[in-house]
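User: Can you predict the 3D structure for this chain?
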Amino acid sequence: MINFWKYQGAGNDFVMIDDRDNKFDINDYKKVAFLCDRRFGIGGDGLILIRLKEGYDFDMVYFNADGHLGSMCGNGGRCAVRFAHTLGLFETKTKFWAADGEHEAELDESNTVHLKMNPPGEIEINPDHYFMDTGSPHYVRFEDSLENFDTVEEGKAIRHNERFNEEGTNVNFAEVTGDQALTVYTFERGVEDETLACGTGVTACAIAANIEKGMPSPIAVKVKGGQLAVGFEKDSDKKYNNIILSGPATPVFEGKIDA
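Assistant: Here is the predicted structure, written as C-alpha cells:
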C-alpha cells in the first residue's frame, strides 16, 4: 500500500509521496503512470517524491504523467514546498533540490508559495515566437485573443513538428490583458494535453512579455486554474535573475492505494 497526498496549484494537480526512506522505485514508470491515471489510479498532471538530500531541506523528484522522470515543474515545485512544510521539513523559508538544481522558496501566512526560479539560458527570439528553458523547454506565442482558442490542436501541432517531435516542448499561448497582466494557455509535453496551469510556462511568458511588450515586473498571469504572478529583475546585460513565481498550493485529499 502506498500512502499519498493530492495537491493542486492553480489547477495543476500532483500526486505527492513522502519517500524519505527511498523505497519508491524511480524506474517503475508503469507504476507512476498508473498512479497519475485519472480513471484507474489517483489522477494527476504529475507525481512528486519528497526525498532527503544532504545540504538541503529536501529533494523534489518529479515525474510526468506518462511515468517518466521530468524536468523542473514550477507549480509542482510550489506544491512540493507546501507538502514539505506539512512534513515539518522547514518553517517559513526553504532551500531544496530539483531536476534543474537548487531552488529557494518561502511560504507566507496566506499559504502562498513564492518560488525562486532559475534564470533561463539563451532566449531564442523568432518573428512569431520565443523559445527558452525556464527549468523546462517552452515555446511562447502571443495571440490577439484566446477566446475560443483550441490550445490542444494548436499546441499538439507545434509539440510534434519537425523540430520538437523527438525531444518535445511545452507550448504556451499568451494574450496581453493589461499593462502588467497576461492570460496564458499551455499544452504540456509528458501530459500531452492542455493543463490548467504551468509554472515554468507562465514564467517564460512573463519574460517574453517583458522583451516584446516592455511589460514591467511583477506580471499577473491568469490561467484556466486560477491566478499566478511572476516577478523578476533584469540586469545591465539584459539577463533575468531573481525570478519569483508566486501562487497558491493547496492540499486536496490524502489516502492509500494498492499499487
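The mean pLDDT is 97. The chain has four helices and 17 strands.
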